[in-house]
Amino acid sequence: MRMVVFVLAAGMVIGLSVWAYQENYRTQAMIGETERLQREIGEARARLAVLKAEWAYLNRPDRLRDLTEINYNDMQLLPLRPDQFGRIEQVAFPSNDAPITFENAVEVSSEEAKP
Fold it and tell me: I need a labelling partner for 62 at 20 to 30 A (CA). Which of 49, 70, 79, 102 fits?
């Protein structure tokens, strides 16, 4: 009887050690994956910072003004005047009394339509 208990205990120790090693390898793999994702996030943030800097550089008012002057005839641009801007009172908002109709509505849901 004692031999069966020893064999059973040894089997349990072996099984638990195999499980512990598997968990250790899974944990190490997840740590590696997390570090890889953190590196990718850092690289993406660096790329985003460069893109923001380029966008700010390209949208400088003096550069845009120079481009407008250079391409004035080709693009048939007109200079901005104060009377081209409106006031909020001039915007015609729809009334709240108007009924909402769905005659020509388009389904944009990502779920499948149910009959």
Answer: 49
